[in-house]
Amino acid sequence: MSRTSGSFSQKTAPRVAQTALRLFAKYGYAAVSMRQIARDVGVQVGALYNYTPDKQALLFNILLQHMDSLLAAWAHYPKRRDPSDQVNDFIQFHLEFHFSKADEVFVAYMELRNLIPQNFIVIEKLRRDYETVLQEILSAGLAAGQFEIQDAKIATLAIIGMLKEVGTWYRPDGRLGEPEIIRLYQNMALDVLGSKYVIKKGQLDKLSGRRVVIE
Question: CB-based contacts of 179: which residues, under 8 Å, 6+ apart?
Fold first, then answer.
């Protein structure tokens, strides 16, 4: 059976986005041309405009899809009630979501500056929505007396900034596996927050030096 134009389009459009992502991550948005993207996809440069209006639209859609999928995934992530558990859950979610998305992480943070103003406003709003998730967790922990922080917003930015750097050095074949990295970052975050767990007697050995309140 001959290939229809519709099926060809359905296969080519994702390839255009994936190629643009890879090239933006490798060379930087400013250094990549539409001609280079077309060549790597295997289409004429004129045909590329059947799939995107311009290079700016490619960048915007990459960042939009990344943030939309991130927020949607968190919305369906199981939630616990204790603020310290929620911090651990947020860190585990964030790292597991991004471990396999090094290019997306790099482009999301390094190429934000190359968005035109109206596109920047959209992406920045989604980024703030994601930061608000953690900020509300920290505010709840502060109100419950579990965290010792002066400003939940600043603590949020510090933790997310710490997490985003994992994408710059993580390698699947590296010295530490994903579970070990997650545990390290959970412990570092809770230490930064001055987390106090409320535990029962006999459970102290599970907390390895962390300050606790014993019921």
Answer: none
